[in-house]
Structure formats: structure tokens, C-alpha cells
Amino acid sequence: MTAKPTFIHSRDNALLKDLRRLAQDSTAYRKQGRLWLEGDHLCSAALTRGQRPALAVFSEAFWPLAPVQYAQAAPKTIVIADALWRDISGLESPAQMGFVLALPAERTLDAQAPTVVLDRLQDAGNVGSILRSASAFGFTQIAALKGTAALWSAKVLRAGMGAHFALRLVEGLEPADIDGLAVPLLATSSHQGDWLHRARLPWPCGWIMGHEGQGVSPALQQRARQHIRITQPGGEESLNVGAAAAICLHASAAARA
Description:
This protein has 9 helices and 12 strands.
């Protein structure tokens, strides 16, 4: 049975302000201990991965049309006046619904897990895309160094399209923390190392993806067992890190097949 919803019509409502922060402030999830998922695709992905939202939130116009799996997803349902909904959304074309989930407990590195190391990647779209590729190609852990875009921010969640809930996410790491990984590390490079299509790739392993402009830091390069570069016969100087990650992670998956 669907719980009776709580309606919000005031711009000064405290919950409305909290939702706005979650949607628009990339680190608000750390302060509030909860996440904002916006849109039916991301919410559906969370439910499919076994997530249980604490709140289900709908625009007033959408609420009567909400599919039962969304309307009954949470123990508490919030319906927000249409005039206020755009104030919450972080999207140019706001979705009509969202979930609030508890922030997963902090985790430590699993030494043996197939891992993607994110070295100060700053673009939320790149980070989310890499999480999605990692999940697709059999990697189970993300190790994010300090300086990397906040993994649970609304923008990274949207770009990840639900992959977050299939991965072990560890963020705020220092280079020395990567020594806790027992798997061999492979560092991407634009100018040195083995060509990816000829390299013998170990499994499990850890791929290091470097900063969009500076590449992999010297501290992490020194920790890598192999340096890997991708052939680019078209002559471009480098690839977008999200594209490079997808190519490298797929190569690891193909080598296992």
C-alpha cells in the first residue's frame, strides 16, 4: 500500500533546501550523509541493483502518473509543487522524480579486486563514464585520489547511470594508499610503454587513469608495473580520458575471454 505523501508548497521548507543542496552542491552528500538520484532511468537502475530509497520525491504534476514501482519504493513520499521543482533540479530539463538514498558506508581498499585508479580526474562526466565502463568490463573497485571529482555527486551519479551500485568506491586517497593494492598496476601514457593491442595484460589488475591535462602523476607512474599507450593512426595527440579508459578496460575484458 502506498504511504500517504507529504506535500511541499513553501520555498522555505527545510527539506526542499536540503534537496537543492544535494542536487547542486557536489560535496553536500558528505555533510548530509545521503544522495540525490534524479530521473526515472537512474532511479530504476538503483532499484534494479537492490537499493532501497529513504525518500521518493515527485513533482505535483507527475505524482498521479507515477508508476507503482516508484510510488511504493520508499517508506516516505514527498510531492513538491511544480513551481518549486525547478529550484531543486540540477538538470537543464528537470526530471519529474527522484530518490534520496543513504550514503553507503565508507570502505577500505580490497587488495585483490580488479580496480580502476582515478588520479585527480576533475570532470564529473569523465568520472561517471569511467565508472560505467568499469562495471561493464568486470572491474569491481574504484580508487579515487584526492583531487578527483566527488564520486557520489549528482553529476557523477547521472553520468554513471547506476554503475555506482555495482562497484566498491573508495575516495580521498593519497598515492601511498595505492600501495595497499596487491594487483599489478598499469599506467596509461600518451608517449611511452607497450602498445595496448600488443601488450600482455594481467588479470586481475589495476588501471591508472590520469588527470585530464597532466596525465598520471610521477608518484603513480613509479608504482606501475607497465605503461600502456593506445595507437592513434589518425594523428591526435591524446584521447579524452573517458574514451581511453573504455578502450583499456575493454582490452582487459577481451583478454580474459
